[in-house]
Amino acid sequence: MDFSWLQDPFYQEYLIEGFVNTLWLLAVSAVGGLALAVAVAMARLKGPRPLAVLAKGFTVVMRGTPLLVQLFFFYYGVGRLLEGIPGVQDSMIWPLLRDPFFYGALTFTLSVGAYSGEVLRGALASVPPGEREAGRAFGMTPFQVFARLWLPRAIQRCLPTLTGEMILLLKSVPLVSTIALMDLLQAANIIRDETFLVYEPLMLIAGIYLAMTVVLTLVLRQVERHFPGMQPTRRRFPLRRVENAPCKH
Fold it and tell me: For a 10 Å CB count at each end of the chain, is N or C smaller?
């Protein structure tokens, strides 16, 4: 095994850039995807019929097509289509629209929104209506009932599943190497091409992803434990058995 190339600043720069882009893709896609998931779930449950049908169609398409195909569609399809629209390349948003990071984050956000939206829809539907009625009885507005009661109770029910979705998202990030975005896998491919080493760069990337998965799992486990209603109540002072004793007068 030859890992002497790790001492080369040229390759170190590639690895650092790939690691940073991987973390940014994970963070942006997770936050945006979960926000989209809430909107999709509410559209399915409480939205008008056209919006509900649109949300259902969105989840069917995103869940029924491969993630790599979606990534190619947005980057090579939508991206190239935007290039041909007059005035787009001269606009202020063109640097964003030609960046592969944008299409990677967009694809992952939509994917997380579709999968997690379906999970949240089931969790929201499983919350007993009496809990929402109790909130309205206390004078809460519909938004307060949703934000303080309904949504937290739904997240409490599906939090372990959402944790799994975040781990799957992390494992999906290497797909962006196919659209010329510098991530960890793309950095490994460059190192393999220039050093003619096959196993060492891949082993290093696999180790980094394994470490990131372990850290992400531990962080999300802590979130599960400290989320309201998820942590089991513990008796600080356990009850002791009291023996029968004669009463003193």
Answer: C
Q: What is the pTM of this model?
A: 0.87
DSSP 136-158: HHTT--HHHHIIIIIHHHHHHHH
Could you give phi then psi for residue 65, rounded to 5 degrees?
-120, 150
Q: Which two tokens stand for residue 247?
A: 């009463």
**Which tokens go with 176?**
């962006």
Task: For CA atoms 62, 217, 161, 204, give the dihedral sign.
Answer: positive
**For every one of its 249 residues, what pLDDT tens digit does the chain have, with 9 covering 90 and above?**
888 899 999 999 999 999 999 999 999 999 999 999 999 999 999 989 999 999 999 999 999 999 999 999 999 999 889 888 888 888 898 889 889 999 999 999 999 999 999 999 999 999 998 988 888 898 899 899 999 889 999 998 898 899 999 999 999 999 999 998 999 999 999 999 999 888 999 999 999 999 999 999 999 889 888 877 655 544 444 445 445 545 454
Instruction: State which amino acid sits at residue 124.
Output: L
Cβ proximity of 28 and 109 under 8 Å: yes
**Coil, strand or helix at 88:** coil
How far apart CA 24 and CA 163 sit, in angstroms, is: 18
d(CA 72, CA 91): 24
What residue type is 135 in one-letter code?
G
